[in-house]
Amino acid sequence: MQFVFIGLAAGVLSGLFGIGGGVVIVPALILFAGLKANDATGTSLGALLLPVGLLGAWSWWQKGHVNVKASMLIALGLAIGAFFGAQLGLRMSVPVLQRSFAIFLVAVAVQLWMKASH
Questions:
Q1: Count of C-beta atoms within a 10 Å radius of residue 26
Q2: Cα–Cα distance, 54 to 38 (Å, whole number)
Q3: Fewest 10 Å CB contacts: which of 32, 35, 59, 113?
Q4: What is the C-alpha to C-alpha distance for residues 92 and 101, in angstroms, rounded to an integer?
Q5: Cα separation of 96 and 80, whole Å?
Q6: Average pLDDT over residues 54-83
Q7: Is the C-alpha dihedral spanning 6, 9, 13, 14 positive or negative?
Q8: What is the distance between the alpha carbons of residues 6 and 12, in angstroms, rounded to a whole number?
Q9: What domain range includes position 80?
Q10: How many domains does the chain have?
């Protein structure tokens, strides 16, 4: 049941902010479900396969807020990047993967905070 709640929270935040996998699901799986960082990453990617963003994207598209060409190009980059990122992540130890992810989240948070101040 905890996985359903993690998915529900990620879905709401994804629809609201366009986030989900890395920012919500992976930390939630580590903190609340007790998964290791590499298991959480793989599980998140498994959950995010094709249909997940469809309804959220459709809702935003109906109101004219989706740049379809940009979305398709980003999807292409995501597909290629996810493959190479997975290869890199699989070579890292669990502690290094988890710490690297934490540093990434802090760096993104600081950048967003600074940009919001202007």
A1: 26
A2: 26
A3: 113
A4: 12
A5: 23
A6: 83
A7: positive
A8: 10
A9: 2-116
A10: 1
